Amino acid sequence: MATQSKYQDKQLDELLNDLIVTLEKHKAPVDLSLMALGNMVTNILVSNIQNPQQQQALADAFCSALKQSLKTK
């Protein structure tokens, strides 16, 4: 999704591969996969960001980045 990242491509690729393998292992259909990933994003924001306004701002930025990434595919 991001065009620039402080993380190495290899690190991101390995994490993405693990997530894909897990979803495939459970034979998760698209809707279940999106529900699980959405819940994961919510959990990450709630568990790591205490300020509700900052949570909302990061969620908005995430949504914008997701929408933008779909335009480039």
TrEMBL record:
Q: Which domain of life is it from?
A: Bacteria
User: What family classification does the UniProt entry report for this protein?
Assistant: Belongs to the UPF0352 family.
| The name this protein goes by in its record | UPF0352 protein HT657_01820
